[in-house]
Amino acid sequence: MLKHLVQALLVTAFVPFVPFVPAAFVPALLSASSTVRTVGGDHPAGPVHNEHWPAGLAAIVNVPDRVHGWFVNWEDVFYFTGDTQELNRFISRTGALPGGDLRVILHPGSLAVRSPWDAAPRPLRADWTLYAAPFTQAQVTDDGITPGPFVLRIHVYLGGQVRLDELVVPAEVAVESGGEIEDFVRRHAERR
Q1: Could you give the CA distance from residue 115 to residue 11 in angstroms, rounded to a whole number?
Q2: Binning pLDDT at 50, 70 and 90, where does residue 24 land?
Q3: What angle do CA 186, 191, 185 make, to 5 degrees?
Q4: Which of 22, 30, 113, 152 could form a disulfide bond with 102, CB atoms 3.0-4.6 angstroms apart?
Q5: Three-state SS for 177?
């Protein structure tokens, strides 16, 4: 039952608003009647912390380059601005966190800064986001949550200050495509 509720929320709650959010939307509170309750909001501009974060994550997100952030239950999303050298340092520091599963996802174009409940993007500029959550949808079962590494995803947008030819990602960190270019190529091929 829990797994089906989570999957329903993933399909209807935030995917249309923030397409890069991984599938880890798990309710923090479930009542005895299985009514789903969510808690969320914008992070304040000052320092933030979460007791479920790995040691060192607060120091990484509490920097002047953080321009926005929001949370829903156990999930946190932070927006940062900076050039490639700043991003390289950010990736290195995030990759050094204990117990984390870090992946870097590359996207073409620019990043719209917004919370899922915003009617329109905010007038802010950002070059990457950090998604942080203690588990993924795959870890949610009918019996509860299967422990696993802390989920860390850095989504990098190449339409701003970040230059791909200067990006340095440690060998142990996975790099993925956000899929936008592959989707464009596929749609183009289908029209031919």
Answers
A1: 17
A2: very low
A3: 20
A4: 152
A5: strand
- Encoded amino acid at 136, one letter: T
Task: Determine the Cα–Cα distance for residues 74 and 65; give it in Å rounded to an integer.
Answer: 23
Q: Which amino acid is at 157?
A: Y
Q: Which of 160, 156, 137 is nearest to 148 (CA)?
A: 137
Condensed to tens digits (0 to 9), the pLDDT of residues 36-68 reads: 557 899 999 999 998 889 999 999 999 999 999
Spatial separation of the C-alpha atoms in residues 172 and 150, rounded to whole Å: 16
**Cα 127 to Cα 192: distance, rounded to the nearest angstrom:** 34
What pLDDT digit, counting tens, does each position of 81-114 carry? 999 999 999 999 999 999 899 999 999 999 999 9
pTM value?
0.78
List 40's β-bridge partners, or say none. 72
Assess contact for 187 and 137: CB atoms under 8 A. no
